[in-house]
Every structure is written in structure tokens, then in C-alpha cells.
Specification:
By secondary structure, the protein is mainly α. 52% of the residues lie in helices and 10% in strands. Helix 1 packs antiparallel against helix 3, helix 2 packs across helix 3 and helix 5 packs antiparallel against helix 8. Bound molecules: fe (ii) ion. This is Superoxide dismutase.
């Protein structure tokens, strides 16, 4: 299946002041689109043309002949999800079931947020921080370099934050901690996270 750029699920200025229209225009129209265009070019002739995006990500991970395809396909998957992990007037209270699981696996919502922000801040260079369901069924916070994601690692992603500079440099300059904190406090679509947790359980 050829990769396609999905439209943003909200207006470019919908996440302001936490993420500006300028950031979303560049991030979606230029960066995400480049992963789609490059991914489609690199997919040609691999024999993976008919596979789903998840299958392409899994099949190309750690295959040194397919590194370019992996980087673009994984980033395509990451960004499709990333747009849906945010919403206007995001953040705030979590749906009850999700909050219960977070408190049970991390001790408190604040501890989870602290771990998540810390993972994003300490990811050296480009990458992502995640809330994922691990192989043992417990929720965990992780971080990955570049495009690597829970799909490649055989885990289920519930939430991910893009900590590549292109995601925050226009609005936050070098202040990555402020950006990740604004993401968890004011941008996350917790209903979407709860939906993914319900699907994973
Ligand atoms: Fe990005």
C-alpha cells in the first residue's frame, strides 16, 4: 500500500499557544510529507509494496539493506499517531480507567508525567518518548532514537511525543523540557490514549 499523508485532524492554529500554526505547517506539510514521499520511493522493488505500514516497519527494522525505508516508514507511522495524540484544549483530567492503570503501574499521575518528561529530555539527539504496554502487560515509559518506535520493538504504543528539534524549535527554541511538559499538561488527547489502552487490553 502506498503511503499517504493524512490531513491534520484539526486546524493548523488549533494547538496554539502550545504549538503554533507555523510549527504544524512545517511539521506536517514538510517533514511528515517528506517521510511519505521518501518512503514510497524506497518501498519500490522491496517486495513489501502490498504490506501494511506496521508490517513494513517490522520487516525493515534492523535490516541493513532497508535502513532508509525503515526510517521513513517508522516516522510516517509515528506522525500519523502523533497528530491524533494531541487535540485542542488537551491535557487535563484522564478518563478513569486510564488514570487507574497509570496510578497502579507508576504510583501516581505526577510520577508518570515526571518519567515521561524525563525520557523526552534525556533522549540524546532526535527521537521520541513513549508510554507503551510492555511484553509483560505493564505500562512503561521508554525513549527511542530517530524513528524507532514500539511497533518495531514488539510493544504497543499508547502515547508518543516527538522530540526532534523540528517539533519544538520554532516555539520553544532549545527549551525541550518546556515543550515536553506543555505536551503532557496541555496538548495530549487522553481519550485517544484510553482508547488505545482499551484496545490493547
Ligand atoms: Fe516530527
Amino acid at each position: 500500500m502506498a503511503f499517504e499523508l493524512p490531513p491534520l485532524p484539526y486546524a493548523y492554529d488549533a494547538l496554539a499557544p502550545y504549538m503554533s500554526a507555523e510549527t504544524l505547517e512545517f511539521h506536517h506539510d514538510k517533514h511528515h510529507n517528506a517521510y511519505v514521499v521518501n518512503g514510497n520511493n524506497l518501498l519500490k522493488g522491496t517486495g513489501l509494496e502490498d504490506k501494511s505500514l506496521e508490517e513494513v516497519v517490522k520487516a525493515s527494522y534492523k535490516d541493513e539493506k532497508l535502513t532508509g525505508l525503515f526510517n521513513n516508514a517508522a516516522q510516517h507511522w509515528n506522525h500519523i499517531e502523533f497528530w491524533q495524540w494531541m487535540k485542542p484544549n488537551g491535557g487535563g483530567a484522564m478518563p478513569g480507567e486510564l488514570e487507574k492503570r497509570i496510578v497502579s503501574d507508576f504510583g501516581s499521575v505526577d510520577k508518570f508525567k515526571e518519567d515521561f518528561v524525563n525520557a523526552g529530555v534525556t533522549q540524546f539527539g532526535s527521537g521520541w518518548c513513549w508510554l507503551a504496554v510492555g511484553a509483560d502487560g505493564k505500562l512503561k515509559v521508554t525513549k527511542t532514537p530517530n524513528g524507532v518506535n514500539p511497533v518495531a520493538l514488539g510493544e504497543t504504543a499508547l502515547l508518543g511525543c516527538d522530540v526532534w528539534e523540528h517539533s519544538y524549535y520554532i516555539d520553544y527554541r532549545n527549551r525541550r523540557p518546556d515543550y515536553v511538559k506543555a505536551f503532557v499538561d496541555s496538548m495530549v488527547n487522553w481519550e485517544r490514549v484510553a482508547e488505545l489502552l482499551a484496545k490493547a487490553s
